[in-house]
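Q: What would this complex look like in 3D?
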Amino acid sequence: MIKIKVPATSANIGCGFDSLGCALTLYATFTFKNSQQMNISGCPKEYQNENNLVLYSYKKVFEKLNQPVIPVSIHIDSQIPLSRGLGSSASCIIGGIWGANTLLNYPLSKEECLDIATEIEGHPDNVAPALYGNLCASFQSDKVYCTQFQASKKIKMLALIPDFEISTKKAREVLPKQIKYQDAVFNLSRVASLCKAFETNDTEMIHAALQDKLHEPYRKKLIDEYDKIKEICKEETAFFISGSGSTLICIYQDSKEKLIQEISRLKNKWQCLDLRIEPKGVQEEKYD
Ligand code: HSE
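A: Here is my prediction, written as structure tokens for the whole assembly.
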């Protein structure tokens, strides 16, 4: 039996659209047991079929290696909410790929796993930190290149998870086909500084650099009460849409209690999770 533990992730982090992402201390666990035939449990009935992302990603490894698929029974136990911008799909992809790679005794390097994961997900910003942990900056070229930053352990993130979903497909449809030259410069001039500021916990720099003109202005209208929450969080270090939403993240300074109290008075039900940046990425345990 093999257990694969994968962290949740938050992609984009303001200015790093489709490039930056960090792992978070919220997890999904995937258990792989030998079986006569493939089956999957621990997810809603509609996902218990051949198209399941864990199953698909598991099989993809065998396909890449030109090997017959070893049948297993997979059980999912996930704390990561679906369609909330916290990397639930990435956790399934990395869970499936790393499960297969572990079962086969690691024929693939993490770099090769990242290539396969990005091919499945379409962009690397969630799958990279799910695999490596910490803060990752990634881009696609002839392969996927990923640089890891050692984010300060002092960074405190309050994830505000609403009771409504947003699909990444819908959140990508609202993005414009073209952007202004100055908006591109606005974002790219901030990304490198933001990564460094995460390492040093330079809160003034995080506040100034963690801004975005490429996706948040278009997506905020999909998130009811975005403006109200931004106002509540305005004295804190930073505020951003996690991935493509619907979760919002506040990097807070000292205490979260007042924020939670004010957010509890809003119309929607916002679950507040106090998270930290997860340093390790995917972890496996093998049992006989
Ligand atoms: N970078 C992606 C997006 C993350 O914002 O659409 C969501 O999967």
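A: To summarize the key features: The chain has ten helices and eleven strands. The chain has a mean pLDDT of 97.
Q: Very helpful, thank you.
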